[in-house]
Structures are given as structure tokens and as C-alpha cells.
Amino acid sequence: MSKRDSLDFLANSLLDKTLLSNPSITDELLTELAFLPLAIAQAAAYLSRNKLSISRYLHLLRNTDQDLSNLMSAEFLDLTRPRGAPNAIANTWIVSFDQIRLTDQTAVDLLAFVSYIEPKAIPRSILPLVPPEEQLVRAIGTLLGYAFFIERSEDTYDMHRLVQKATKIWLDKHPLEKEEARKKAVEHLAGVFPDAAINYDNMPMCREYLPHALKVAQSAQGEDLASHYTQCQLLGHFFMWDGRFRECIYWLEQAIELFERVVAIESKVLREDDPSRLGSQHQLASAYLEDGRIGEAIKLLAQVDAIRSKVLREDDRSRLASQHELARAYLADGRIGEAIEVFERVVAIESKVLREDHSNRLSSQHALASAYLEDGRIGEAIELFERVAAIRSKVLREDHSDRLVSEHALVSAYLADGRIGEAIKLFAQVVAIESKVLREDVLKGDECNDLREKLDRLAYSPVCKICPRE
């Protein structure tokens, strides 16, 4: 930027124009800032926010932490072109950051969090909540005020890549703060990333959060097992519903690998009937089942069910869930009689304790109907499928995954019963709905079909028969 343009930019950025009353001091400042827009913007933000004279600000710039400044300048060399720019950016960042640390710790924490996500298109809704809300508002205002944040649109922010880089360098010099920020980022993203498998309406927010979630997932380490597992699972669900099967399979397989480590650790430190340990074993067994590792799934689920049956009531949600999954595994293994026996027991108990439109009760009825269909008991299967589909049609949107699953299954049952006309009519409705919510290329091509075959073993699918229960 030319000297004239730099002066105009500084003048337009300052709230108090009287600060420019001394031309020689102003020239000195612009020279110190290497006529660089980012450095000028940060300097102007600091001057306006703290009502400081330019001469005093120059003194602060020239007395920054030289070790940190030199480190940042070296890191910035490949990212900036003008000579002197790295040092100018480093010094303005340090001066502003030191002031923020004195006045607004929430803003410091927010800055640390953002250093782990993408610096562009940051939704306000992805930022960690800080009670009371006014505190978060103040922190965002602080970062905007110091030009660390730039407001892209309402409730969406950008951060200059060099500001993010400077924050990372500062964190590298403060390992305790860095580790705390990293753990919080991994845990937070696992908690806020929406689950596309539960509700397709979550897809727009998933897409908005996706670049940030992928960035955080890359920073996860061994001690973040539970949060990292959840995040991998959620990413897998998103990519599945977006028709990106290769990425879906990658993240779901990552989730299985992580949960095997969780179970191994918990088996060493927790009692065999510890709820957390049993919950982890249950989820790992479900993942095995979706990955086609049926024998391993049955062995682990039978173990979990045996322990839960000793310590929990028959209508306990966790006990019913493990029995539901065990029956699913039996069905996948061709042990249809055993599957039906367990499913019937679960359905009978849930019919006493859950509302008729409760998702767990409907899931179990759907699973039992699938088992009846496999056993050739077509009439009983159709009766149950129709009941589930009717209830889901009342309480779920037409494009909800659970509703589509029910309707697909009912089509199969009608075909098995020779009711071709009804099957064609319902199938046409389902295809019309799916064509709106699934990408056109999702099921095209041999390679995609091969991926879909593996995907059907790995996770929920709009054409799968039975969805897992946790």
C-alpha cells in the first residue's frame, strides 16, 4: 500500500481524527507498520478502543516481547510479501492481545478456540456458549473492536489468517493453555455438530459447520477418544446423507477404531457392571454389526445383555436397547427364531411403558416386522409395518429417514405378498421424496454401488431394514 493510501486508510479507520494532528508522528507509525493494511487496521482499532495517542502506541510497539515478535516474524515470512510486514503484524498483534488479556478473558478463550477451526465463515452458533449471554456478546465485540474478527454478515465472522497464525504461535509458547484450548475445541465440536441421521433438516447446518469440524477432527489426540469418536460418527452420518460414500466410510471406520480403544481402556479401570463400560461395549457392538462383523457383535452384545439383566429392571431403557441390538445381530446372522423371540419380548415391554409414537417403540416394532418378513410370516409383517408407517406419517416429516425406512420396508412386504399395485404406488411416492433430498448421483455407477454395499453395513441408510438402538 502506498504512503498516501496508507494514510487515507488509517484516517478512515480512526474514530478520533485529531490523533492525526502530528504528521511526523503519523508517518513514523505508518513506517513502523510497513504500510500494511492488516497492521494499520489493528493499530487503528487499538487506538480507537483505548483512546491512546499515536506516540504512546509507538512506544508499546517498540517494547513488545521481542522473543515472541521474532518468532512470529519468522513464521510470517512465507505468508507476507512487503519487506518489514512480518514484524509489523507481529507487534500489532502482541500489543492488542496483551490488552485483551488484561480486560476480557472470555475473548482470549474465544480466540484460542477459533485458532482450531477454519478462519473463514465462522457461524456465531458454533462458538462456545458462555453464560450469561452478555459475556459472549462482549467478547465478540472485543475481538471485532481490535480487528481480530471481521463481520462477514449477520452472525458470521472471518478472522485474518495471520491473526489466527499469531494466536497459534502464542499458544505454542504456552503449552498448558494450548492443550486446554484443544481439548475444549474437540469436545465442543462433538457436542454441537448436528446428526444428519436423526433429522435431514440438520443438513444445512452440517454443511455450515463441516469445514470447522474437519479442522478440529485433525487436531484430536489419544486422550480425546470419546469426543473424537462422536465427531467421527457424526461426520460419517453427514457424508452418508450427502451421498459422499468414500468419506462416509472413512469416518465411520475411524469411529470404530477409536471406540475399540475406549472399550479396551475401560475394561482395565472399570467394573464389569459399570454403566459407562457397558454403554461403550454396547456402542462398539452396534458398530461391529453395521460393519458386518456379526460374530464379534453377538459375542459382545450377549455379554452386555447378560450383565444388564442382572442389575437392571426389565423395562430399563439400556437393557431394552441391548436386547434390541442382540436381536438385530441374530437376524443378521440368520438366527431368525432367536431374533423374533427377543424382539417380541422387547416390543411387549415397550408397549406397556412407552407412548405409541415413541421412537424406540416404533423402532422395535419395525425390527420385529422385518424379522417376521424374513421368516415368511408376511401377514404379520405387513400389519406391523403398516402400523409403524401410519404413526410415523403423523409425527414425522415426509423426508425424515425413519419414515422413509418404514415405507421402503412396507414396499418389500407388499411385493412379497403379491400386492404389486400397492407396492408400485408406495414406491413411487418414496422415490419422489428421496429425489428431493438425495443427490442425483448418489446411486449411479458401479463404483458407487460398491461403496453403497459397504455403506449399508456401516451406518444408517434410507433403504436399510432396521436402525440400531443405543
UniProtKB/TrEMBL annotation:
Task: Kindly give the Pfam families that the UniProt entry links to this protein.
Answer: TPR_12 (PF13424)
Chain segments annotated as coiled-coil in the UniProt record: none
Residue ranges crossing the lipid bilayer per the database entry? none
Record's protein name: TPR-like protein
The organism is Trichodelitschia bisporula
